[in-house]
Fold this protein.
Amino acid sequence: MPNIDIDQKIDELLESIHDEELEQTERRYRDETQACLTFAQTRILALASASASDAEGRHIRSCPHCAARLQSFREQLHPSLLKLLLFNLGRLGDDESRLMRNHVNEGCVQCRRLLATQWAEKATAALRTGRRTAEQLAGALSRAVCGMWSVPALSLNYESRKGHRAPFAAHIEQDNLSLMLEETDADELLVRVFTEDASLENRRVHIEVIGEGKPLEAEVELTAVGECYQGVHYFTAFSLLTGSGEIVVLAVPVSDGESPA
Amino acid sequence: MSGRRKQAGDGSSGPSDESLVAKFYDGDEDAFNEIYRRYRHKLYHQGYRFGLKHHDAEGRVQDTFVKFYESQTKKLLGVAGWYDPQQAKFSTWLYRIHYHNCIDLIRRRGSGPVSFEQVATAEDDGRPSPLELIPSRDLPPDEILIQAEAVSAEREAVREAVAALPVEIRTAIELYYLVAEEDEPLTQQQIAAIIGCSTPTVFRLLEKGRRLIRESLIVKGVAEAGAEAIEETSPRRIGNA
């Protein structure tokens, strides 16, 4: 068979492979239904998770398209902590500054609260005075964990408060560090920081919880517990912090012998 | 080019991508949703063809469309990163974003294309083609294989041959043949814009790819060894440059 026929055959076979595979892929997206969130709706949820209804929450947990979409919006919309600090100092380029200003002015609760943490204030001051460089802070932040969660409102009827709602609990993992949050019966927020990274043994971790009341902050030391390293703190009067909105929690490893920033 | 799919205008209907993008940038969410519907499975297919597993391929699809969605804000703010119809076709812009999304993930995991130009211009140094290392199948040696049962064997042989290509060559072949719009395949210029190399480099990569696939089919007995390679005699055979 001359090569010209082989080449034509290769063309035809490659095109038939394309058609077959594309048809299979198209079928995959037929499960996207009316129940799926639009991009506009997903964007709103990425900015303020408290706005998700129970039905939306259930759908996102069961739909791979919507779950991936929400994750993408969260990653693309929210700048890194370091970028937030540099924005605070006016050290971002024009384009990035404009995007950042738009994002914060859009009312991003998470980013505004992160900028209001004691940690951010001290880190900004350290950058401004030159005590820390952006690279050093980037290194510290590479091991930081932060997240935002909605906390349902407490009933004002104290007698019926017990059992009124399920206690708040959350869990987040980011690379080296994990956070577990748990509301106790004694109106406390238990924060457990843990890692399997041995290089973080005996390191202190600065924790801040920012809600509608006065921010709560503490430091814990990561000590060995079994095969991981853990630090635990109980914040009291949790209900005064939460109101009916959201809380942002930040945990950043502290360099030895130094203040949080 | 023989065997290449039909040109645009044959069965394509509805507004152009570019007009939909303009409407979206003016605030029309339905226009965005239409573009999403047109391209979601094609982008998923591109990620799948680059070797991404289902979860990662889906993640990259959503990443790309979120990036496109957020480009509306960028246009409003006058910040770089939105689609300009003066610069390229919308499909080229979208496939390029998606290509980089996929390749960034693949590279973080330690593989992926390194240099398209280097591979395109590398001389054959007498070593056996990588495709010769694929075990031969027990196929009829001199049939043209046009029967239905033989067609699926041929297709499988071509699939294997493509999968075994060096990654730079495979990228060009897949974008040209396997990640194309039904009625308007990607041109070599578009592929060059997507992967970030010159059009002649894409041409050379496609030529090498086709030669390696041809050799593989001959080695496997799917096709006969024939006359001298024809790319030298008909350099424009690999279509619309």
In short: The mean pLDDT of chain A is 82.
